[in-house]
Amino acid sequence: MLKLFRRKKKEEEEVVEEETEEEVGEVESVEEKKEEEEDLIMKINERLNEIENRLPRIDVSISNLKREIDGLKENIQKLEDSIKDMMALYEVVSAQINPFVGQSKVTAISVERLNEMERKINSIEDVIRDLRLDLRYLFRSFVNVREIVNEVIYEEVISLE
After folding, report:
1. Residue 37 in domain
2. Which of 21, 27, 54, 92 ranks highest by number of CB atoms within 10 Å?
């Protein structure tokens, strides 16, 4: 009987030892998981800090790139305008030299601009010519300019009253 009790006690001790070994194994695996999670959290925090440190530099880079892009857009717009002017000039010259080339819309506008500029230049030349003649007349005829100016001023003062 004593042997039976001892055997039963031994079996119970073995079961308890197995259970404690399993619990120890579970605790160890839980601790390993906790350490792995803590390591992962630390790595994520380090990465966030790196990203936060890079963010201002990235903002500065983006603003510099925007300025460069705006400058390039202005340059491209100037180039387009220059090309348009060159093409208009080419068409005007082609239309004047080559009789087989018809007038396009751009050419007609350019020719109209040139004609308007010529009219303005002619009117300015007429005004200058008239001024020269008036000055010559004044100097040759010994006209008293002061007297004329005073008369004009006197007439204007009288007309205001």
Report:
1. yes
2. 92
* CB-based contact 93:111 (threshold 8 Å): no
With a threshold of 0.70, does the pTM exceed it? Answer: no
Q: 80 with 137, same domain?
A: no
Where a domain ends, among 101, 130, 149?
101
Local confidence pLDDT in tens for the 161 residues of the chain: 667 778 888 888 877 777 778 888 888 889 999 999 999 999 999 999 999 999 999 999 999 999 999 999 999 999 999 998 888 788 777 777 776 666 666 667 777 888 888 999 999 999 999 999 988 887 777 777 788 888 889 998 888 77
